[in-house]
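Subject line: Sequence and fold of a protein, written as structure tokens
Area: Proteins and the way their chains fold up in space.
Start of record: The labelled sequence and token lines come straight after this line.
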Amino acid sequence: MTAQASFRFGFDIGGTFTDFVLCNMQTGELHTYKTLTTPDDPARAVMEGWSALLGEVHAEGNQVELAIHGTTLITNALIERKGARVALITTAGFGDTLDTQREMRYDIYDLHSPPVRPLVARDLRCEVEERMNTFGEVVTPISDAALDAVAAFIERTEPQAVAICFLHAYRNGAHEQQVAAFLATRFPQLARSLSSEVAPEIREYERMSTTVANAYVQPLASRYLLRLETQLQRLGYPRPLYLMLSSGGITVAATAARFPIRLVESGPAAGALAAIFYGQVTGHSNLVAFDMGGTTAKLCVISQGRAQMTHTFEIARMHRFKRGSGLPVRIPAIELIEIGAGGGSIARLDDLGLLKVGPQSAGADPGPACYGRGGTQPTVTDANLLLGYLNPGYFLGGRMLLDQAAAAAAMAPLAGQLERTVVEAAFGIYRVVNESMISATRVHVAERGVDPRAVLLLAFGGAGPAHADALARALKMRGYMIPTNAGVASALGFLTAPVAFDLARTFAGPVTAASLEALDGLLAELAAEGQATLVQAGVAETAMEFVPSVDLRHVGQGHEVTVRLPAGRLVELGLDGVRAAFFAQYEAIYGYAHPHLELEVMTLRVTASGGAPTLRLAEVGTDATSAARAQKGLRPVFVAAWGRFAEVPVYDRAGLQGGAELAGPCVIEEPDSTAIIGPDVTVRVDAYRNLIATFDERESM
């Protein structure tokens, strides 16, 4: 490899595996690596993958022009309650906001449902005599005595981080900044999170919850990112480390350390970006992205080449499908759903004797029983191995051997409870986990007005290609696509992301011709803040782009619709233009609009972006006869549609060239994933070695 070659490096730390992609930016050639996550020190797995891939291409660390990272560290810390000791400083009279929440049970039919436990105990909340009104005007200033009381509280409670959330700080954060400056002088080592910076939006509970969650993981994120950057520098990487945000943009580690809550969905967001990229490459703009890894499965609807966004969601839910049972966070994020169904999901019988799979996972340590690392409970991966879907000698390209006897031993007690054979129990696990994902997909796409018969399923992740056929078949989809390097596709998604950051500010007022100028002024302020963030990330001014949007609603409604605005000032768009944009969006969502009603604006938003990078994949060539040479032999595989084992051909994906066609049932193997193709399916290989499968009886759809 010549010294002139430059690379981009993406790595995704998941609950079970850490995935790596190294892209040669001159040739478009991809190099991939996958290894078990090291939960005790995630950076250890990163160092392994970094060294392995750069060694493979004979390159040095200084030839990597950009390293981008996504992690589950933040999510896991919140779920497992392993964050910092946090103190909350809030307005007098509002210390119980985290307990009262929305003053309703998340399950009105369960009188014994446990309440959501806040991240900050009551004795770690300090109330301050201060007050802003709804217009951001000072009613009660903060006195020196109040600041001294705050200092005494910090000295007594000894927190590791502090969250500052005052009433109406979304309109004026001066009091929060005053307290933060005071604390920086008295307690310089104390991490500080201000609601006026973390989530400057209306709705007191959500804003406070988000700020507290940010403070809760801030020390952990700062230590981790500093350690990782230092280790990469020792390996010769001289540039800033970038982090994937939940919104699909990337930012520098320094910004991520200030706002780590923005990283909570970084891995799944990268998967959505990968789906968008592969959709562009193959000419499919309407997809359902299906990412199934070792711990969870994620689903995201891609419509017209774009993923939908959300600005409020919940993390660490006590009950996965019960809204209100988790901690709300108000940050921009790609809208998707997660299901506790991954390769490591554990199977068991519930109290009624019914077979259940997940959400508990064997993770990376000990992992599924077949990993031979001490796991004893049956998992989805164990079931797939026993059904012949996985090659025990070719897992991770042969770097990790799977123990079929250990999988059978783990499955035997469950089979005994079910009064079935080991294979029947394994097939039961396969069907149950599929049904869980099928049901979730059906609801998710229906809620977004998408007909599954009109879209393709794009399946990736280490386990996704093994389950894609069953999902697409049950949902009567046109077919499914398995992209090249499917097992590490999320890591590839990092390389397609722009440097970007989302900013927001609540306005809360009527939409009138007179208010447009004030709204333009606030949008300009947000753009200036975004510009400063992009400059810090090294983005050239000529590459900067600022996309405004606004949360609008009918006067008196309880919730808003986010409307993306065209470039230019609102004054130039005019009141009629703003109203027309809202009613068009409202009608697209709900099927009707009320153009006679007045509107009010709640929140202004600006996405500051450095422009998406150009990523060009290398073509593999064309050879329609390559399938015959790529066949590795036959293997007994349990064909779900037939309900029995059958000898089916097994293909080495690396040997397939563009133009090749394969007929199901068959198995297509690559080092990081295995595709299980069912009967009555035709698979076409394109010029980039993507697999595009269509059901024979649905060719005309």
